[in-house]
Amino acid sequence: MQFLSNNHGCVGWNGEMAERICAFDWSLTDLGDIQHWPKSLCCAVQMLLASPLPMVMLWGRAGYMIYNDAYSEFAGGRHPYLLGAPVELGWPEVAEFNRHVVDTCLAGGTLSFRNKELVLLRDGVPEDVWMDLYYSPVADDEGIPAGVLAMVVETTEYVISERRRREAEDAYRADNERVRLALNAGALLGSFVWDIKGNTLSGDERFARTFSYPATRNLADLSSEIAQALIHPDDRRWVQEQVDQSVASGAPFNAEYRVQRPDGAYLWVLASGCCEFDEQGEPFRFPGVLIDIHERKTAEESLLRFTRNLEQRVADEVKARLDTEEQLRQSQKLEAIGGLTGGVAHDFNNLLQVIAGNLHLLARHEPDNANVQRRVSASIAAVERGAKLSSQLLAFARRQPLTPAVCNPWQIFDDLGELLQRALGETIQINVNLPDEPWRIFVDRHQMENAILNLAINARDAMKGEGVIVLGADNVCLDHEFCAGKGISAGDYIRVEVVDSGVGMAPEVLAQAFEPFFTTKADGQGTGLGLSMVFGFVKQSGGHIEMSSEVGQGTRVQLYFPRSLRPVPSETTTQDSPQRGGHETILVVEDNEAVRTSAVELLLEEGYQILTAANGDAAMQLLLEGVAVDLIFTDVVMPGLIKSSELAAWAKVQTPPVAVLFTSGHTRDIISRNHQLSADTWLLSKPYGPEALLSMIRDVLGG
Fold first, then answer.
1. What pLDDT, in 10s, does the model give residues 111-125?
2. CA torsion 113→117→118→119, rounded to 10°?
3. 245 three-class SS
4. Confidence of residue 214 (pLDDT cuts 50, 70, 90)
5. What is the pLDDT of residues 44-63, one digit of tens each?
6. Residue-by-residue DSSP string for 164-186
7. Is the dihedral of CA 601, 606, 607, 610 positive or negative?
């Protein structure tokens, strides 16, 4: 990584965040231009950029955020939007806590927290997290506290693991205590003496009751056969072996075995004793005691069952993890393919735009040449087919700009009904099943209709053009177990499904179904991009797609979209305003010279005043020199420090604001979030024709 030195404030700074900090327009904040930052602030920023730990500077009373690479990973989806933002706006869920931090440190104090518990929003869901937090004041050049240097180390995994360890230890101690108490509290069931030489057995009353001797039986003459008969059959041989070993070696006798009770149940007992020897070393007497250990053995058996269940649960968890890892590998594979196809589609769209622009200009210059017009029309049709192919690639790669809105599934299926029947043919019967009150969803309605149409056409082809296709939508609640490894969170969803009774797919075919250009159809009968496009659209909309199929049994495709609680917007009709003029000044910003040239020629023919720039840096230089423009027509993805989104931000704060129209093969999320455009963003996708360009320019200028 090269050291940045484009201005004195950035000298010696390195890393991705250093580039972002130096490129950020700080003049929009109270910090002012980075060239005029206090030396103390520059030194503190250099220090935090060099730190491997997550660190953030909160400067000024508002706490404008400047942070390093490690903190950007901690910020997750909020990065890079936190840069230059006041801390209370960047982390609104803990705004009061951060305000206390800023006030304390600007007053000269310091704060530190170990395993501080906070509730942060992650992916829109509140989550309990624990942090080690250290806050220190940073003085300005006059020695007055002007900012806060914060070190943030997330300890959530450590806290949770420690909590689980303590719980496991407590459970272990409790189990041991129960076992110990069961042993210590075991009632003495009696004592016995075995006269080895006379082979007679004697015992006390409790011993006699344990082995169910008759109450009238002489305690000094108890039958050993009765006692042996009441020992559990599985324990008799082992008990006899322990007795023989003790008699032979003089080792203490300790045997746990089961004794049958009068009701037929078995009682666990512990028999302890030792063999006594006479002066000649011959065994002659064997005294012992009998202890009730039934509760302890019951507890041990319960613990054993628990251990076995735990082992089974661990085995199940391992299997689930392996399944999840396989899903992850498949997802990463599709993600890698998506990144490649997205880049190819972007460059392909630029090529198509050059071709389309010159074809339209040629048609305008040769209006009376029928041969030229015929060839141009055929070429433009080919460009449009290429544009559709590129659009499908972008949909799979999740790079296609979406315009989502809240809608009701009833509206989508109602509007699709006639189109579906016309597209599928009269030999296909369509059954639609919808709940009486379906939940609302937040999707691009046009792309949703395309997805359903694609799936229905696939179903028709699988059924050889005859049969019943079932379309449906259900309100479903997905739990954590279902959502694991699928990239979605548990909650309320609308499940849209398309079911056919066609030929079905083998498992190896099903595994590749979503890959672009994979098709089982004959050459010329399919591009292999239909399911890929549906997959990309669903994922880009925050949902999940599943497909199940069996050979000869048909296929079921299920699309899951998160429930939206926002109301459906009311439909209002707008009157078309008359198109006005072509006299305004337009700044065309495009790094591809051929694309820029074709667009400029078209706009000049319409009477617009045109200025050009090869990138955002050159465009910003023109604007800052005072050039007056009515509209900035800019490519989204360009080289240089100044991004198209920063041009738009500059235009928005002018008086009056300058209109901005974006164009791109794909946006790479520079002007959108997950490629979903905001309501005030105008985007003309490449390739475009002259009518689309001129119409949208008039819409934007009249907006």
1. 999 999 988 877 778
2. 170
3. helix
4. confident
5. 999 999 999 999 999 999 99
6. HHHHHHHHHHHHHHHHHHHHHTP
7. negative
What is the value of pTM for the model shown?
0.38
- Give the pLDDT band (50/70/90) at residue 146: very high
Q: What is the dihedral of CA 566, 568, 570, 573, to 10 degrees?
A: 120
Q: Which of 516, 562, 308 is nearest to 398 (CA)?
A: 516
Partners of 222 in the β-ladder: 201
- CA–CA gap between residue 568 and residue 242 (Å, rounded): 82
- List C-alpha distances in Å: 553 to 476, 497, 513, 550, 695: 25, 16, 17, 5, 50
| Domain architecture of the chain: domains with CATH | 8-154 (3.30.450.20), 188-292 (3.30.450.20), 409-564 (3.30.565.10), 585-701 (3.40.50.2300)
Q: What count of Cα atoms within 13 Å lies in the side-chain half-sphere of residue 137?
A: 17
CA separation for the pair 548, 555 (Å, rounded): 6
DSSP helix, strand, coil percent of the chain (3-state; round to 5): 45, 25, 30
Q: What would the pLDDT profile of 465-492 be if each residue is shown by its tens digit?
A: 888 899 989 999 999 888 887 888 999 9
Residues 6+ apart with CB under 8 A from 162: none
H or E element in which residue 474 lies = strand 467-478
Q: Helix or strand or coil: residue 540? A: helix
Contact in structure between 194 and 240 (CB atoms under 8 Å): no
Burial zone of 496 (CB within 10 Å; 0-12 exposed, 13-18 middle, 19+ buried): buried
Q: Which residues are CB-neighbours of 491 under 8 A, at least 6 positions away?
A: 477, 478, 562, 563
**Amino acid code (one letter) for 233:** P
Query: Confidence band (pLDDT; 50, 70, 90) for 398?
Result: very low
Chain length of the chain: 703
Contact yes or no for 343/367 (Cβ under 8 A): no
